[in-house]
Structure formats: C-alpha cells, structure tokens
Amino acid sequence: MDITTLLQFVWVAWLVLIVLFLVIEMFTLEFTFLMLGIASLLGLVTALFGGPLWLQLVLAAVAGVLLIFLLKPPLLRRLRRGADEAKSNVDALIGMAGIVVQTTTATEGRVKLSNGDVWTARTHGLPLAPETPVTVTVIRGALAEVVPARIEGTYA
Asked: Quick one: fold of 89-149?
C-alpha cells in the first residue's frame, strides 16, 4: 500500500478523532475536548473537499486553539452562571453559632453547633464554660476553633 492510498482514507482518521474527543468530553465535561472535536470536524471537511494533509492539520490546529481560548471561557461562564453559591461541607461551618457543652480551652473541649453536630473544639483565649455561646472561626480536620459569640456589640 502506498502513501497516496493511505491519504485517500485520512477522513477515517478524522472521524476516529472526532468520536474519541467526544467520548472523552462526556467524561470530563469541561469543553476542551468538545472544542478539539469541532476542530477535527474542520479537518474532516477539508479532507472531504480534497485539501492536502498539511492544510487539514493546520486548519484543525488553528481552529482548536481559537476555540479553546475564545469560545470555551464564555461557554463555561454561561454554564456556571446559575450554579449554587451556597457554602457546603466544612465551608458552611465557618461562622456558625454554637454552644459549649464541655469546658473549652486551648487544648480541649466540645461544642454543639446550631446544626446539631457536636465537635471537638478549642479556643485561643480564656477557657469557655459550658452554655457559653460561641462562633466557629476555623475548622482544622475534626477540630473546630471557636470564639465567644458577639451579642449586641459585646462578647457573651
């Protein structure tokens, strides 16, 4: 088989690339491989109209770069525009109110947060007695760092 025979079937390679990029895109969902698939489609169209291999490759490469840098960012912004901005997991605990259930010092203690969770806690200031209202400032692993809660401009 000579090179001219292979070049007659280069469109098959473009089809394989398009399918491969689209399958990868289904798993990543970040539009990069979708842009490469569209660029490969341009290479396929160039091949079907008899364009030389170098032209197919150049057009596909330029289209891929342009699509990734010009079309992908606005598509991602539009996709994420309606995303839920609510904090979740540990981020949702920062600033949450709670109450001391076991005297809390710089080394030990326990607090019950307003969501009902009981956490091992510590404070950086004076020890906090049970029933003291607190606010979570930082979560470090399974440890909540707390400060006395502010009530009407003063600390409780």
From this structure: OB fold (Dihydrolipoamide Acetyltransferase, E2P) (2.40.50)
